[in-house]
Design a protein that fits this description.
alpha+beta, 3-stranded mixed beta sheet, 6 helices, 46% helix, globular
Length: 125
Amino acid sequence: MASLKSLNEIFNNTLYRIPDYQRGYAWTQNQLKDFWDDLYNLSETKNHYTGVLTVKSVPLEVSGSERWNEEQWVLKERGYRAYYVVDGQQRLTTVIIFIQALIEVIQALDKNKDITENNIYTLIF
């Protein structure tokens, strides 16, 4: 059994791809609100357990194929590892959306836009 990993460890030098057989992103406002509430109410001394992420290593003959042309620069030149997300796609996608939204909120704060704690949830989700 693998140990718990931080987001930094999960995303470090790793490229994830959702296999064709997986359903698309399907979280609704209810799941997003639960995710936000979990993070918002998290004590500073605690870690958030996001759930299980199950991945399968993509064989080199597949990740080196024509279907992965756009990713070759990061796989070959930067030495990233390629994985299919077998389970946890909804959580992983939500975390990525959340991180991007946080970047946008921080950029808006840098531009002195009026952002309060009450409307951050709306901006993100």
